[in-house]
Amino acid sequence: MTTAAHEPARSDVLVFFGASGDLARKQIFPALYGMVLEGELTVPVVGVAFSQWTLEDLRTRARESVEAAHPDHDPQALDTLLGLLAYVDGDYQDPATFRALKEAVGDAHRPVHYLAIPPVLFATVIEGLASVGLHKHGRVVVEKPFGRDLASAQALDAVVRKAFPEESVFRIDHFLGKEQIMNLLYFRFANSFLEPVWNRDRIASVQITIAEDFGVQGRGAFFESAGALRDVLENHMLQIVALLAMEPPAYQGYGAVHEAKANVFRAIRPLTRNDIVRGQFEGYRDEPGVARGSDVETYVAARLFIDSWRWAGVPWYLRTGKHLPATVHEVIVEFKKPPQALFDDAMMAQHPNHLRFRLQPDGEIALGARVKTPGEEFVGEQRELIAETSGVADRRPYERLLGDAMQGDRALFTSEESVEAAWRVVDGVLTDHAPAIRYAPGTWGPTEADTLIGGDGPWHDPSTPTSHGRK
Ligand code: BG6
C-alpha cells in the first residue's frame, strides 16, 4: 500500500529535538544507525537539547547508545552516523536557540523536525521553528501522547497547523511500525476464512494485554504527567483495537485504512468510571520525580464496547501495566461455544476456540481448538495450530517510521481525526475515576480487574505460552 501517486520529495536534514533524552538513547540513535546501515540516512542530523552539551557529548551518547543496542555493530556505519551529527544546545523558550538552529540547518530546504520531547514543549518548539522560517517546506514528527486530553490535543493541533499543513504532520505511534502490529492488518485482510466469523455472531470477547515486567525506569516525572491511560491505552492499545475491529478498507491505499480506523474510534463507546480499574505498583511513590501522594496509575484495565453493526455487544478487555509478571503483548480473540452439546467436555470449556496473536517478545498467531484425546471416550483437549511470525528481518519501528517521515510517506502515522476520536474514548475517565489500587510488583495488578472481566474471564495469562492460561 502506498500513500500518494507521486513521489514526495525526501527531507534533506533531520532536526532532532530531545537529543540528550531517554528516548533518543534507547531508541533513536540505534534507529539512526540502522538507517545509515541500510543506506537510508545520508543527510545531516542536527540534535537539539538543553543540556549544556557539546557536539562531542552528543557523539559520545550516540556511540554508547548504538554500542548498547547493537553489540556487533559495523564500526564504519557508526562512524558515518557520528560524522552526520551536528548539535545545537539551548533553551527552547529562547529565540536564540532557533537562530542557532537555522544556522546549523544551513542550505537544507526540506527539513524534517522530530520532536522527541515532553508534550508540554511541543507548542513552544513549533512556534520557535516558525519564528525563524524553519517550518517552510518542512515536516514535523510529533511523539505520542499527542496532547493530554481531547481539549489539549485540539489546542495543540491548532498550533501545529498554523505552521504545517496536515500532509506535513507525522504523528508517531511507534507500535504502528512494529512488524507484528502490521501483521494484524495483513492477516485480517489477506485471508478470506476470517471475515465470516469476525463479528458479534461468532466472537464472544477480545482480550488485549500489554504487560511489562519493569517499572517506570527513571521516567517518574514523565509518568506523573501521563499514567498508563495516556501512555499506553489511549494510543498503542486503541491502535491494536482499531486494526482488529476495522471494516475492510474500501480501496488499496493507506487513506482507506486511516478512514476505517477512525471509524472504529468514533464507534467506541466513551469509557466511564465503572469501565476501568486503575492500579499503582507498591513503591511507585518512592520513584524519583513522583509525588509522595501520587494517584497516577501504572496499571489500567478497561472494558469497552464498539457500537457498530459488527461488534454490538462484544466486550473488549484491555489491560496494561508496569511491574507485571512478564513483558509480553498478546491478543486473544475468544469464539463462542458450539450451539449444541454433542460432547460434554467441549461444552465445559468456556471458550473452546480462540485466535491468539502474540505480538511481543516473539511473533505468533495461534488458532486454539479442541482435539480428541486418543481413547474410547469422546473427550479432548485444547490445542493450538501455531504460525510463528518472528524470525524475519525486523527493522526497529523507529527506523522504519523516521525513514518514512523523511520520505513523506504518512501510511504508518495517525491522522488528527483518529487522535481526537481516540481521546474522546478516554477523556471522561482521565479525571472521573476511582483511586488507583495498590498492587504488589510481579503480580497481575489489582484483583478488582477480575470483577471487571467477570464471567468473560479469567484474564488469560500470556506468561504461560503452553497452556495460555486456560484449560
Ligand atoms: C512507550 C511508553 O510509548 O511504549 C512506554 O511510553 C512503554 O511506557 C513503551 O514501555 C512500550 O513500547 P516497546 O516498543 O518498548 O514495547
Summarize the structure.
With 471 residues, the protein is of the alpha/beta class. Helices cover 35% and strands 20% of the residues. The protein contains 13 helices and 15 strands.
Architecture overview:
There is one protein chain. A hairpin with a 7-residue loop joins strand 13 (364-372) and strand 14. The chain folds into 2 domains: 4-143, NAD(P)-binding Rossmann-like Domain (Rossmann fold, 3-Layer(aba) Sandwich); 176-396 and 416-456, Dihydrodipicolinate Reductase, domain 2, CATH 3.30.360. It has 471 residues and is α/β, with parallel strands linked by helices. Residues 466-471 have low confidence and may be disordered. It has helices spanning 22-37, 55-69, 75-84, 95-105, 122-131, 150-163, 179-190, 220-245, 254-267, 344-348, 397-407, 416-431, 448-453; strands at residues 13-17, 45-49, 85-89, 111-115, 139-143, 169-172, 203-211, 276-281, 299-305, 315-321, 328-335, 354-360, 364-372, 380-388, 437-439. The chain is built from 13 helices and 15 strands. The chain is globular. The strands form 2 sheets. It has a 9-stranded mixed beta sheet with strand order 14-13-12-11-7-10-9-8-15. The protein has a 6-stranded parallel beta sheet with strand order 3-2-1-4-5-6, with helices on both faces.
